[in-house]
Amino acid sequence: MKGLKFYALGLCAALLFNSCNMSNTAKGGVIGGTSGAALGSALGAILAKNGNKGKWAGIAGAAGAVAGSTAGILIGRKMDKAKAEAEKIANAQVESVTDGNGYQAVKVTFDSGILFQTGKSALNAVAQSSLNNFASNVLIPNSDMSVGIIGYTDNAGWKNSTAEQSKLKNQKLSEDRAQSVSKHLLKNGVANGQIKEVVGLGEDNPVADNSTAAGKAQNRRVEVYLYASDEMIKAAEAGTLQ
User: Fold this and answer.
1) Residue 60 domain boundaries
2) What is the CATH number for 208?
3) What is the pLDDT of residue 57?
4) Range among 36-50, 101-115, 220-234 with highest mean pLDDT value
5) Is residue 27 a part of any domain in this protein?
């Protein structure tokens, strides 16, 4: 996949992001003046930018590309609209994040307890309905947005398996679950070229305490990221993005 340029925000912008409940449109204007250049995986840069640890940790502090304030505002405005539509989808948790270019993006998390049976990667009926609505009302109308899908598991062991074997099985399960979501979205009209990355990260990047049942449930998840494609960025920079 073609890598996206990314950059770390200046201290002033970081303080603004952390201290204010700003809309994507407003934040897009703030980030416009930062400059630099570097390359990296689109999803990796998003993860690093938003505080995830792991192999991308070194990316977060890298210098990056210029994001013009006009482009940031236009992309932010469109991301706000996509976020509002995603918030209407049943069983989805939606939040604003920053992509590797410093532009606004949307993160949609589906609880794997809703999506799948324990240890399985086949989508259940409730999940299929939620993903159908997600495809029809969010992804297809925003076909100029790129999509990345990441599957995760908790750290629960597998029967008759060593800790290392269980970790490998969880890694494979996370990949299969991400692929199941991707295949279902494609089956329901999402363009193949819109989905840029489909990966599984197994037990990595837990969002809750794996020592509790509630924490494990939160860590079993699939995350879908909507971020500005190269074409969308070009249109925003030209002032023609609708």
Assistant:
1) 4-237
2) 3.30.1330.60
3) 40
4) 220-234
5) yes
